[in-house]
Amino acid sequence: MRDLSGDREALPQYLAGAEGTGEGRTGARRLLSTAGIDPDQLFSDLVLPAAGPVVVAVSGGGDSLALLVLLNDHFSRHARDRAILAVTVDHGLRPGAAREAHHVGAICARLGIAHRILAWQGAKPDTGLMAAARQARYDLIFQAARESGAAMIMTAHTRDDQAETVFMRRARGAGRGLAGIAPATLLRGRVWVMRPLLDIARATLRDMLRGRGLAWVDDPSNQDRAYERVRARSCLAADPGLADALVSAGRAAQGERVALGLRAAAVVRDRARMPAPGLVRLDPDVARTDDASAAGLALSALVAVVGGRARLVEDGRADKLFARLAGGPVRATLAGAVIDARKTGIFLYRELRAGWTGAVPARVGALWDQRYRIETIPAGAVAVETRGRGRPGGPVVADPDCPAALQRAALAGEPVFMDADGRDIDNGASGFARVVSPFACYLPVFDFEPAAALGALFGCPPLPAPPLRGHNAA
To answer: Which of 365, 25, 45 is nearest to 212 (CA)?
Structure first.
């Protein structure tokens, strides 16, 4: 297809077919049906938010343009009262990016769809640029969703993207990551990112666009072999059957990941409790369970939450610790958590010296130690820091299975507000909301059940349910 990124003269002709004739729409639907895809089923299984628009990330490429057109068609037939907000992120990394973003805006204007251009401002990193760009993209789209009152974002990841992702993760030996791209991901605990095109090939979507008389912009970086995904795409193109095999393997890994997560969630619900602030107690015999895989995942997740880690511990250290716990008393540290196994239970609490940075400014919405979100700030408070040892704490709970010394050690790792003179403002737990650290930013629907069980244990606000009819994360 013609690259329109630098051709303004082509724009009027391009837009002339943007709405498509009735015949074009019928033909496009017929093409999707021939490929075994029911256009209505792409979105009919979604539970749309009660209010607000649906945000669609549209780069101007073929995949995202196809998503925009298909969703707009679906709403015109089945949900005329629903609105779409298309957003295009200009990363400022290519000279033609701004022109492409304006092209998307012109298409949206023709279709009657609201559009916003989101610019990534500021200096760009010298290393890890693609990862930083991805993070910036999600940050900007999330902000746009919150400002517009949207609770759902859609992205145009395809079957090809799924195959490429599984291919790359298999090359790295990524265990849980072999499940590939999730059809739904909860972003920052508030907005669901949906990927309704994961079962559709990129070529099918582009054939549909051609049938509608629509063109798209090709990003030149998609041909740059300096990027891992471009190299993976080249390998898959050389072996037509490999993509199908990878997608099938990904689906099998998804089923295994969900099943294990369900069992780990049961371990958390049945075998873990919080007898005192900041202190988790696991039943002492949990390490001798018949389902070591589920108990090991539960332990890894608990360590990550207690230690304020953004990822589960998956480098073998959690497995070694779990094996040690079956042998008797243990005191160890892992990923920012202290694990103290005694006859009365296996206790976990925050390790104070693990990367501790001291006081941070008190700001509503900020994460403190990746464990608490600051919700409200009491009068006079300017900072938040750990209580630390030696500070007065709350009362010790009389519990024969929970030593007072462990309660005090756990309380030392909890947050406290401070005034400008460095004095404590004892606000108890008020003002802070606990977060499930490894899933605080991104929660794939595969892991919804263990995340919900962890949230209930730590007293986190309830998670919004996955917006898929009949979906129980399995």
So the answer is: 25
How far is the C-alpha of 299 from the C-alpha of 305, rounded, in Å?
A: 10
Region for 195 from its dihedrals, namely left if φ exceeds 0, alpha if ψ lies in -120 to 50, beta otherwise: beta
Mean per-residue pLDDT, 432-458: 96
Which residue type, as a one-letter code, is found at position 258? V
- 28 touches 214 (CB < 8 A): no
pLDDT band at 222; cut points 50, 70, 90: low
Q: CA–CA separation, 422 vs 425, rounded Å?
A: 9
Question: H or E element: which one contains 383?
Answer: strand 383-386
> How would you class 322 by CB atoms within 10 Å of its CB: exposed for 0-12, middle for 13-18, buried for 19 or more?
buried
Residues flagged as binding site: 59-64
Chain segment 166-187, per-residue pLDDT in tens = 999 998 887 899 999 999 999 9
Residue ranges of the binding site for ATP = 59-64
Strands (E), 128-200: 152-154, 184-187, 191-194
With tokens 């949207």, the residue in question is 150
Contacts of 243 (CB under 8 A, 6+ apart): 159, 160, 163, 236
Q: Is 198 in contact with 460 (CB distance < 8 Å)?
A: no
Q: For 98-143, how does the pLDDT look when each residue is reduced to its tens digit (9 = 90+)? A: 888 898 999 999 999 999 999 998 887 878 887 888 899 999 999 9
Closest listed residue to residue 67, CA positions, set 81, 95, 51, 46: 46
DSSP 8-state symbol, 440: S
User: Are the beta carbons of 337 and 308 closer than 8 angstroms?
Assistant: no
Residue with tokens 């999330």: 142
Domains observed in the chain: 8-157+195-238 (3.40.50.620), 255-458 (no CATH)
Amino acid making up residue 331: R
